[in-house]
């Protein structure tokens, strides 16, 4: 009983530094990933036109042309 309690306490005490070090490592890894994503996004020439926007623009222009041809 005492041995298992001592074992658990020692394990908890030894795990504290590893958790603290892991947090810094995890934070650094997250920053590296974000920097890489920013670099990739900066390389792209322009944002793509979404298909829904393209379709809406086409249907709007078609509707205007059709209305203009009816009024003549």
Outline the structure in words.
- The protein has helices at residues 2-43, 51-71.
- The protein has one domain (2-71).
- It contains two helices and no strands.
- The chain is elongated, with a radius of gyration of 30 Å.
- The longest helix is centred in the N-terminal third of the chain and has 42 residues, at 2-43.
- Helices cover 88% and strands 0% of the residues.
- It is mainly α and 72 residues long.
- The model has no long low-confidence stretch (mean pLDDT 76).
Question: In a nutshell, what does this entry contain?
Answer:
This protein is mostly helical. It has helices at 2-43, 51-71.
Which features does this protein show?
72 residues; mainly alpha
């Amino acid at each position: 009983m005492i041995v298992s309690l001592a074992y658990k306490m020692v394990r908890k005490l030894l795990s504290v530094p590893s958790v603290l070090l892991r947090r810094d490592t995890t934070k650094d890894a997250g920053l590296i990933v974000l920097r890489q994503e920013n670099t990739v996004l900066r390389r792209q020439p322009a944002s793509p036109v979404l298909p829904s926007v393209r379709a809406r623009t086409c249907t709007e222009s078609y509707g205007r042309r059709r209305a203009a041809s009816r009024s003549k």
